[in-house]
Amino acid sequence: MAPKKAKRRQAAEGGSSNVFSMFEQSQIQEYKEAFTVIDQNRDGIISKDDLRDTLAAMGSMNVKNEELEAMVKEASGPINFTVFLTMFGEKLKGADPEDAIMAAFKVLDPEATGTIKKDFLQEMLTTQCDRFTPEEIKNFFTAFPPDVAGNVDYKNVCYVITHGEEKEE
Which of 13, 74, 144, 162: disulfide with 98, CB 3.0–4.6 Å? Predict the structure, then answer.
């Protein structure tokens, strides 16, 4: 049994020990929280079923098996936390900050509408990672008010975050 355990530990540690030096400790903690949310069955590996369950929890019920397989195949093997962190490091290395922010929002928009429901966004901002305070939520929705259907245009949010607000008055 010991050799099997050693192999599992080696696999869990992943290929690159330098991956942790790519991020600040606070970022690593945020990625760990995201990993924990996605790892629905809490086995330490993100699988197709974990992705399907996570997307379903976000309201996307009709995700094709092929799409899930493509997501999982982006990794060279099982997606443990180190692999997950490495994947983010590879995606963010040299990436434009706006692209990174847009990609994060797109995860919350599986239908690719360019918007996110205000109530869902508010729930995410107040319950995940760096949680917003009630005052921060108020300020956020003052700066980025939802449309009449209750949708927030996250492309506008990304633009303002990365370029600053340009008033056309």
Answer: 162
Structure tokens at 69: 């397989």
Q: Tell me the whole-structure pTM to 2 decimals.
A: 0.48
Q: Which among 27, 45, 26 has a CA at the least distance from the CA of 35? A: 45
| Helix segments in 39-117, DSSP class H | 48-57, 65-73, 81-92, 97-107
pLDDT tens string 59-111: 888 889 999 999 999 888 899 999 998 888 777 665 556 777 888 889 888 88
Kindly calculate the radius of gyration of the chain based on its CA atoms and give it in whole angstroms: 18
Q: What are phi and psi of 68, to 5 degrees?
A: -65, -40
CA–CA dist 160, 57 (Å, integer): 28
Q: Which pLDDT score is estimated for 163? A: 64
Residues paired with 116 in a beta bridge? 152
